[in-house]
Amino acid sequence: MKKIICSFLSLLLCLSFYIEVSAQEDSPMSQNEQIIREFIAAWSNLDPVELASYFAEDGTYHNIPSGPITGRLNIEQFIAGFSSSWDTTDWEIVSLLADGDLVMVERLDKTVVAGNPVNLPCFGYFQLLDGKIKVWRDYFDLATYTSALAVALDAN
């Protein structure tokens, strides 16, 4: 009897999750979700000024292996520094969750450096305020990135 009750409760839990996810899929995209989708798409332009414009004036970008960068101009300069060797980049959204001012995105960043691919799985946590990114924490394995980058640069 205990197994039946546990199975039934598990089924109810799964069903409630499915109903919630289905309802979210049918609901219109939130403004914050749309902003982050546009921000991620804008990376393919490799324009640090454009990318920094998505941040609040006092916004913070914390590329987790590095320290946090605060202030739109500082963020622009930081992006310009690490992306200057990139030929192209295309960020694929694997999954995205949005709830109010919070947007979380699992991505695969597909970048080409010196003609060679550097693919990096990432997870971004965004906190928005008044339509601008207030905080962006980006998580990834630094060794995965530096290894792929080294291979790409050594190939030339």
- Low-pLDDT residue spans: 11-15
The pLDDT mean sits at 87
Task: Tell me the name of the CATH class.
Answer: Alpha Beta
Strand content: 35-45%
Number of helical regions: 5
Class by SSE composition = alpha+beta
According to CATH, the fold-level topology is Nuclear Transport Factor 2, Chain: A
Shape type: globular
Strands in their spatial order, largest beta sheet: 2-1-6-5-4-3
Number of domain modules:
1
Q: What is the CATH architecture assignment?
A: Roll
CA(first)-CA(last) distance: 67 Å
Note the run of SSEs as H and E: HHHEEHEEEEH
Please report the total strand number as a whole number.
6
> In this structure, how is the largest beta sheet organized?
6 strands, mixed
> What percent of the residues sit in helical stretches (DSSP H or I)?
40-55%
* Structural Rg: 19 Å
Structure explained in plain terms:
- With 156 residues, the chain is an alpha+beta fold.
- The protein has a single domain (29-154), classed as Roll (Nuclear Transport Factor 2, Chain: A).
- Helix content is 43%, strand content 38%.
- Strands 2-1-6-5-4-3 form a six-stranded mixed sheet.
- The longest helix has 25 residues, at 2-26.
